[in-house]
Amino acid sequence: MPKLLPSPAPALIPQLRRLPTLETPASDSRSMVKLRVITLAVILLPLVGFIAAIAMLWGTAIGWTEAALFVAMYVIAGIGVTVGFHRLFTHRSFTAPTGVRIALAIAGSMAAQGPLMQWVAHHRRHHQHSDDDGDPHSPHLHGDSAMGSLRGLLHAHVGWMVSDLHRGLARYVGDLRKDALLGRVSRLFPLWVALGLLVPALVGGLVSMSWTGALLGFLWGGLARVFIGHHMTWSINSVCHLWGSRPYDCGDESRNNAIFGVLSFGEGWHNNHHAFPNSARHGLRWWQFDSSYWFIRGLELIGLASEVRIPSKDRLAAKRLN
């Protein structure tokens, strides 16, 4: 485990100091408006990029370079979120050396789902209040009518992101805020997002030796990849609390959904996860493919992960409903 250090120093890039932080009071209306504008941009720009990428396919097909950039960046950012942000930093389901921790934190930031500290704080609050008052993105708190259910689905999927995002978040990440390196990575979130967009553009341009190749790399390895990654993650908040199986008793409406179990690197085995939140493995049955867990096992085999947590057979049996 990395040595715990004093509280992080001021942000390295002065401009980032003007962005809202975990400590920004919810009553600070100017900061909240600024944050909502930034959040809407992060939501809408990838959509615009995805539409542009699809439009440029008219009369042709996606090239091997664009396909490779999309897949490579989707996997890098996706593993950064599921293995790094989620299983390592939020739930501490395994330990890793400093270099691995920083690499996963940067990779997860390239998914453009928010700074590390904010992401972890929201998710820990979600588990503390799952499908109850205080849950930032439950689909079950908007009434039982058809319209209430629709409002709940939209809120859980994306609407929650423009609510009071920073109310009381700092207390959920006291452990992480003691790590100076993680604090710097979290504050430099805009830089990592920019790299996640510009690197595929650079590679696309160099491979094709054209500005068109750079644009396609930017669209497919950047914005379109971010768009798909966003909706895969947001579907865990919405779809996986509405549709699927509930093999374990965990006191909420979390569901296992096989489609998202595969597409979201094992995160779709969501009922399993809520039953055993500190488990590094979410796909608890042999047929529940969990690529994030196998990535962690790979790290363990080469000495880059340790203390990998998995529930015992007795614990599994004690919570099993069917």
How would you describe this structure to a colleague?
With 322 residues, this protein is mostly helical. Helix content is 55%, strand content 0%. The chain has helices at 29-55, 64-90, 98-109, 116-128, 146-157, 180-187, 189-208, 211-238, 258-263, 270-275, 291-301, 313-319. Helix 2 (64-90) packs antiparallel against helix 7 (189-208), helix 3 runs parallel beside helix 6 and helix 5 (146-157) crosses helix 8 (211-238). It is globular, with a radius of gyration of 20 Å. The two termini are 38 Å apart.
> What is the residue-mean pLDDT, rounded to a whole number?
88
Strand content: under 5%
Distance between the termini: 38 Å
Helix count, DSSP H or I runs of 4 or more residues: 12
| Main beta-sheet annotation | none
Helix content: 40-55%
Number of beta-strand segments: 0
Q: What's the helix-strand series?
A: HHHHHHHHHHHH
Q: What is the global morphology?
A: globular
Q: Poorly predicted ranges (pLDDT <50, ≥5 residues)?
A: 1-20, 23-27
**Structural class given helices, strands, pairing?**
mainly alpha
What is the C-alpha radius of gyration, as a whole number of Å?
A: 20 Å
